[in-house]
Design brief:
Order of helices and strands: EEHEEEEEH
Mean pLDDT: 87
Helix content: 10-25%
Low-confidence stretches: none
Oligomer: single chain
Number of helices: 2
Distance between the termini: 37 Å
Strand content: 35-45%
Largest sheet: 5 strands, antiparallel
Strand order of the largest sheet: 2-1-3-4-5
Structural class: alpha+beta
Radius of gyration: 14 Å
Length: 81
Amino acid sequence: MEEFEITGQDTLIAVGKFNSKAEAIEQFRKDHPGYSITAINDEIVIGWYEYSGLPVFEGDDYVTDEEGCYFTRQEAEALGE
């Protein structure tokens, strides 16, 4: 199992072992409702992918639409963005 550290607003830090980032995010949201996630394992979260709901990290290859929604490059190409 891989360990994930989730950092939220107000310097809330939650550490736990999960099978995936998605599982770690889901548990953080359950345990800390109302807190936004700002980093995962020291990677800065800049947004959330529209379809998968997974985090967009600084340096990811992403596309945004006119409304500011984040898409992976593959999703954007499929949508004609």
